[in-house]
Amino acid sequence: MALLFPQSPRADALARKYGYDPWLVSRFLQYVPDVERFLEKMEKKPTQYIRVNTIKTDAPILERRLEEKGFALSPTALPEVFAVEKAPMSAGATTEYMLGHYYLQDLSSCMAVEALDVKEGQKVLDMAAAPGGKTTLIAQRMGNTGCIIALEPSEKRARSMSFNLARLGVFNTCVCRMDGLDAERLGRFDRVLLDAPCSCEGVIAKDPTRKTSHAPEDVDYCSSRQEKMLEVALRVAKPGGIVVYSTCSFAPEENEAVVESVAQRLGAAVEPFGHGEQGLDSFGDRKFKTGKNTRRFYPHLHDTTGFFVARLRA
Amino acid sequence: MMHRNPARDERTMINRALALWGVFDALKDAAFVIREDGKSRQACLVTPELEAAVAGLEPLYCGLAVGDLAKHFSPTMEGADLFARLSGGGKYYVAVGENAEKLVLYGRDVMGDSVTNAASDIGENELVIITNRAGEAIGVGRTRFAGKLMTQKGKITVTTLKDAGRYLREEDGERQAKMSRSPRRRRS
């Protein structure tokens, strides 16, 4: 059950000021550092990032071409990702975008693939793949070798994903219309990415309706499904293989609690990862032994959308 | 939607196309699967690992669709992109200038004034890959003239059949889908 906290005058005041449901702000006060700065940051347009598609071009070449068009880019923690500081036109309307030289993708989202540590020739499962941003990054990190099985239950979203795969020149991937919970019939994989469907608390800056559109029951529903999906992810990983679990939620029930519960049940190790803030080691009366190795990304600290990443070794 | 291994005549058609577009050496050992939906067939480039993994699955999409197979092989936009990157040009590649590039990306035809490079032995009614000055594929078209007449001023010399901007227009939903359905065609 999603943990609720007694409402406080501070939580009520912040909820009123920024237009949130009070239960949500009461929870943020328990697990988000520097809440007021966080809420202020969520009111601002998020920084836009572009990820260079190294299947088609190189970072310095793309950087030069975009700068000639008046873009100003700045480097990030990942070599193929740039923050867009100035854009004379929509970053989704340039010739280079149409030709698939880059993809618009938040830095935090790329971190899930960084944690996956893919190698050329591997067999990879992406359990909830559309619209394909992480899938295409995996493909380029594998040098378009090996194979990626991408699962997406919605045909419409799969079609949209196929446009992205085609535009970016990916040929090591197939898209199957399948729920990630049914993945056990697909065999075993060297790497498994589970970017789990979640309550999306981390993208409130992009979608402010999330301030009031979800309820504690949604967190419960998501966490229950996430546990089942992570179990499947670990079962389909080869022994010694890596499973990356990620969400764009801040809710501990969808993050540290899911990882702790499944890792303990299936005997998986949670490995440290060198980016972001350390995950929570407790929430309410729950303790998370594995929390310190998980990672959180906060908009006001990392200038990304809110994100959670855990790397598990099967 | 079905994906299967190419029949012998299909593989022959693919190989001939690879030779025509100057990428036979680069792709002669590559694996392909055929995507078939009863009405159309596409040749999809796949990795050997993907070719093996896909057996027994029923994927909606598999690999990179590089060409439509009918009576002849016609490169898709992503096939054109791949061929241009691997070949570095050739007889069936027509280069255009910067202004024309933008217009081709809106689906417009190519004026002879805009052609910066075309093979002197190119024929009329040939399928060509339209590239920008950097040699990147921006469209697939059909020539209306042969040889030196390709650069004549004031006339459309290449009809644009496919362009790299189409994906964006289709992906962006109803408004842009409406634009792509518009029969209006302007000169570049």
Question: Which characteristics define this entry?
Answer:
heterodimer, A: 314 residues, alpha/beta, nine-stranded mixed β-sheet, 15 strands, 36% helix, globular, B: 188 residues, alpha+beta, Nuclear Transport Factor 2, Chain: A, Archaeosine Trna-guanine Transglycosylase, Chain: A, domain 4, five-stranded antiparallel β-sheet, 12 strands, 29% strand, disordered C terminus
Description:
The complex is a heterodimer of chains A (314) and B (188). By secondary structure, chain A is α/β, with parallel strands linked by helices. Chain A contains twelve helices and 15 strands. In chain A, strands 5, 6, 7, 8, 9, 10, 11, 14 and 15 form a nine-stranded mixed sheet that branches. The two termini of chain A are 27 Å apart. In chain B, the strands form two sheets. Chain B has a six-stranded mixed sheet with strand order 8-12-11-10-7-9. Chain B has a five-stranded antiparallel sheet with strand order 1-2-3-5-6. Chain B folds into two domains: 2-84, Nuclear Transport Factor 2, Chain: A, CATH 3.10.450; 89-168, PUA domain (Archaeosine Trna-guanine Transglycosylase, Chain: A, domain 4), CATH 2.30.130. In chain B, strand 2 (31-36) and strand 3 (41-46) form a beta hairpin. The N and C termini of chain B lie far apart (37 Å). Chain B has helices spanning 8-20, 24-27, 48-54, 77-87, 98-104, 166-171, 174-181; strands spanning 2-4, 31-36, 41-46, 61-62, 64-69, 73-75, 93-96, 110-111, 115-117, 127-131, 137-143, 156-163. Chain B is elongated and about 55 Å long. Chain B is an alpha+beta fold. The interface between A and B is large, with 37 and 38 residues. Strand 7 (173-176) of chain A pairs antiparallel with strand 4 (61-62) of chain B.
Summed up, what is this model?
The complex is a heterodimer of chains A (314) and B (188). With 314 residues, chain A is an alpha/beta fold. Chain A is built from 12 helices and 15 strands.
Protein topology:
The complex is a heterodimer of chains A (314) and B (188).
Chain A: H1 9-18, H2 22-31, H3 35-42, E1 48-52, H4 59-68, E2 72-75, E3 81-86, H5 95-98, E4 102-104, H6 107-116, E5 123-126, H7 133-141, E6 147-151, H8 155-167, E7 173-176, E8 189-195, H9 210-213, H10 216-236, E9 237-247, H11 256-266, E10 269-271, E11 277-278, E12 282-283, E13 286-287, E14 295-297, H12 299-302, E15 307-313
Parallel strand pairs in A: 5-6, 5-8, 6-7, 8-9
Antiparallel strand pairs in A: 1-3, 1-4, 2-3, 9-15, 10-15, 11-14, 12-13, 14-15
Chain B: E1 2-4, H1 8-20, H2 24-27, E2 31-36, E3 41-46, H3 48-54, E4 61-62, E5 64-69, E6 73-75, H4 77-87, E7 93-96, H5 98-104, E8 110-111, E9 115-117, E10 127-131, E11 137-143, E12 156-163, H6 166-171, H7 174-181
Parallel strand pairs in B: 7-10
Antiparallel strand pairs in B: 1-2, 2-3, 3-5, 5-6, 7-9, 8-12, 10-11, 11-12
